[in-house]
Specification:
136 residues, alpha/beta, 5-stranded parallel beta sheet, 5 strands
């Protein structure tokens, strides 16, 4: 009886833990975002660029992707385009976190299917957390 209760509790906890895939070619940014998100109860996986992120998501989907835009191999815009064009990945929300502050870049990110666009200069961890909570 007791083990059944413990199992149900553990199952509820694992359902509540959302998985965030952080995609950034900067180890400093990846580490910062990982520590912020883990401190708020998220399970965090890391990826170094868009190409790696696609491979990881195909192997093991995440609840949300938080991605930089400027990266080698497959940038954030290309990552969003690739995800939204793939039936298995299209439903996964994407938050772009970037230093690119132009209106044109913001509009492009959202047109491609990003769910939010956060500018690094104005980066506020509370804002990132609110954005993620609003989406998932």
């Amino acid at each position: 009886h007791v083990s059944n209760i413990l199992f149900k509790t553990r199952q509820q906890q694992s359902r509540a833990t959302k998985v965030v895939l952080v995609v950034d070619d900067s180890i400093t940014t990846r580490t910062l975002e990982k520590s912020i998100l883990e401190a708020h109860g998220y399970k965090v996986r890391l990826s170094v660029d868009g190409r790696d992120a696609i491979a990881q998501l195909r192997a093991e989907p995440a609840d949300i992707v938080v991605s930089d835009v400027e990266m080698p191999h497959l940038n954030g815009f290309e990552l969003v385009r690739a995800m939204k064009g793939d039936k298995a990945l299209a439903a996964i929300p994407v938050v772009l976190v970037t230093s690119r502050d132009s209106r044109k870049d913001r509009e492009l990110g959202l047109e491609l299917g990003a769910d939010a666009y956060v500018v690094k200069q104005k980066f506020d961890q509370a804002d990132l957390l609110r954005t993620i909570r609003r989406i998932i």
